[in-house]
Amino acid sequence: MDHNTKSKYCTIVNKADKTKYLCFLHTKEGLLNVGLTNASDVWSTDFTGETLAQHMKEFRLKSLEGYFSKIRYACGNDSASVLLEDSGVVLRVGSAPGTLTLALPRLGDPEGREVLRDLLFKMADSLSHLDSTASVSPAKSQQRGYAEFEPRRQHTGPAVTARKRAPGDSLINPGMRRKRAATGVSFDDSDDL
């Protein structure tokens, strides 16, 4: 694997037909390749330095890392979609105004197979490289390595807020109030006479 090439991956589940796609981005010497595959067909486009700068300006992106983050965020939040056309696909990233759209032409049979093979080996080399540089804990390194290939999920559970403790509430059992020591009652027999 060429270690000058940086690669990022995420998965997209198309809402329209529930088809799963692998989105891949490769950068090398300032050039960017964006591609999409369903494991049988491959759609891909290359950006030169000039076309990449124009594309990033159009979508108000400041860096390649911002570009990767936008795509990965959309993959994780199900706000990326794929529209199949005769000669390729249109990848839409985001659902708000300023949605990033990419027209990716379909690659022919021999070129598509070559891209799939290269993609498979890049991913395998990336996993092997992560395993060889892993720390002492294999469980943590395995978790970290496979996270690169999955979209990031946003926490969607209910927010848990800490309740402020009222004066007199028990620290051990917060639902109960602290019992105060009895002060006693004064009974005077002299008042009854």
TrEMBL record:
<dbReference type="GO" id="GO:0006303">
    <property type="term" value="P:double-strand break repair via nonhomologous end joining"/>
</dbReference>
<dbReference type="GO" id="GO:0070419">
    <property type="term" value="C:nonhomologous end joining complex"/>
</dbReference>
<dbReference type="GO" id="GO:0005634">
    <property type="term" value="C:nucleus"/>
</dbReference>
<dbReference type="GO" id="GO:0060090">
    <property type="term" value="F:molecular adaptor activity"/>
</dbReference>
<protein>
    <recommendedName>
        <fullName>Protein PAXX</fullName>
    </recommendedName>
</protein>
<dbReference type="InterPro" id="IPR027873">
    <property type="entry name" value="PAXX"/>
</dbReference>
<feature type="region of interest" description="Disordered">
    <location>
        <begin position="133"/>
        <end position="193"/>
    </location>
</feature>
<dbReference type="InterPro" id="IPR054134">
    <property type="entry name" value="PAXX_N"/>
</dbReference>
<dbReference type="GO" id="GO:0035861">
    <property type="term" value="C:site of double-strand break"/>
</dbReference>
<feature type="compositionally biased region" description="Polar residues">
    <location>
        <begin position="133"/>
        <end position="144"/>
    </location>
</feature>
<dbReference type="Pfam" id="PF15384">
    <property type="entry name" value="PAXX"/>
</dbReference>
